[in-house]
Design goal:
Chain lengths: ~400, ~350
Amino acid sequence: MKAKSIKGKSTEEISSAFKESMEDARLPDSQGFKPTLAIVFMSVKQDIETVSELLDEKGIQIFGATTAGEFIDDEMEEGSIVILLLDMNPDYFRIEFLKTSPDIVFEDASKIGATGKETFANPAFIIANSGVSLDGEPIVEGIIQGFGSAAYSSGKEVTIFGGKAADDLALESTFVFTNGKNEDCAIVALIIDEDKIDVRGIATCGWNAIGTTKTVTKSEGSIVYTIDDKPALDMLMNYLGVEIKQEGDKEIVTFLSSWYYPLQLERENVDPIIRTAMFANSNDRSLICSGNVPQGSKIKFSLPPDFDSIDKVVEECKSIKDNAQQQADALIMFSCVSRYLSFGIVTKEEIEQVQKIWDAPMAGFFSYGEYGKSKTGKNEYHNNTCCVVALKEK
Amino acid sequence: MDKNLQIVTDFIQQDPNMPAEQKESVLKALKSADKELQIVSFKLDRTEKVKRTTAILLEETIEELEQKRNAVEETLAELKSTQAQLVQQEKLASLGQLTAGIAHEIKNPLNFVNNFAELSIELIEEIIEERARSQEARDETLVDEILEDIRSNLKKVYEHGSRANGIVTSMLQHSTGGSGKREPADLNALIREYVNLSFHGMRAGKNSIDVDIILELDSEIKEVSLIKEDFTRAIINLCNNAFDAMREKLKMYKAQSNNYQEVGDAEGDYMPKLTVSTVLEKDQVWISFEDNGSGIPDDIKDKILQPFFTTKKGTEGTGLGLSITNDIIKAHGGKLEIQSQPERTVFQIYLTL
């Protein structure tokens, strides 16, 4: 399977880059590059419709999401468009797109899981969803349930990786799109036949829990009202010295400074899971987190990783290879935007080093949430995490 | 680009004499240096930020831990107070049972006192009757005999009265507590008295059972230094535990379970037996309480000396009896060992003289 990565700061630029990459397709011996699938990550500022049409005209299927920054190979961009073109055999994949809403997202995700099971004996799911407030947990759980609780005969768990679309940190409207469809609350799934394409990946975090364990004494879904019986927002502000920026008389404000210091939910016998406080309610002093935080959960505050955690990410990515020489045809990375906020220009190092492990064309974006399995965990919805997926035709 | 590096870059770029290749190399190096500088600057900035946050977090955490520590200390004080209350309750419960035993026990000598006194009154009536007769009709021999009987009766009255007095004195000593100091005591006599009191206490209570009490006391034992009011509590407790164990076993036997709602179904007879023995072994005294109850199950053997551990349901047992007993023995510099198998349990006390 061949892969080519292209980028552009505008639809014109991407159009040129695309045309150039398609030149190969016109080689007389048809040995040229004929992409069938495009992984498209672009800023909300860009024109989704035009880019989609460009690809659709050539019969290329689209898996697309908006971002808070995107990268192609080892180049980081903002406000631009990146596309990873793949000439994957159309029999080996299928794209599903479902508009959804918070109250039926589990059922919709189940449908995707069921579709995967009906389409291929061993499907892998690469997913993206839009909807800033849409909780990612029911999406993973829905896919697993729809797929069926039985693991493969090999004992392997179903492969799910992906990211939550973003909107350049505006936290207003995010989008996922495919051919002829573009929604601000939807799931797009690239279902791949794992019997034909090797799909492997890993989710790594690196945020370190610190301080004493606290209890979420009152919460509802992703809204945390009190921690140790004290207002959640005030707890965060007192313990971490962060402040909210009052935006006029808006009750709910974005809380970007807290993205450095997410809550770490402790759980028995599995890795802890991160939940970032994305918004704060300045009236009732609650925190609106990026995912479900059950009442009674034990949590700790956490500090961003040291810069050497990039080495940890690299090591974990290496660990999923069967051997040092193993290659990939293409790479997709979903990296939480809080990593970019935390690592800044050093983030490029992470991207560079990860790409070097596989030495294949890579596309990725900075997301508002990630889906994947960590080294010791199970398939889950994460925050502050970097998920890397390697694809290789068998 | 950093403004100083920019100056150097501009200078190099404008230099007409530098060879192109060299220029490119230098400019590349400058660009690289600028990138490094940006990275270092960012890292420093973030490190400062995280350092500040860590300091704030540390302060808040210290305050939180201080508050928690105070709360823990208060709880501990409360627990200690509650524990003291429970120990006192245990003492009163044990005293209550003792009182019942004593009441039971006193009845006996008082019966004798009453009987002999009543008899003596009758005998005096006879003397008065005899003395009312004329000198010739009076039977002086009979009067002498009656006087002798009266004397004998009054001796019995005195004997039993003293016995009752002794019992009350012991009880008073047990309830009010003695000096708390170890004093020489006749161990065998104490064992005899308090095993007896425990037995009568049990008999006076509900669910009383017949128990064959056997005392095998080594006459070589002279006096042992004991805190009487504490040691006697230990004796009572060990006896009561044995009675409880044997009562439980008795419930399983059909023929004898006429005190209970549920009828056991084991055939044959079971006679509860408590053997209390003392042995002088060189510089040690061994005191053992052996019962033929069902034995202590293996899974609770190492728990029974723990405070508040009880197999009794509801409010029947505080779970402190054995724990207090063990503490009393340890306070005497002694040791309590337990051996148990089905049909035979022995609580053995070792005291060094």
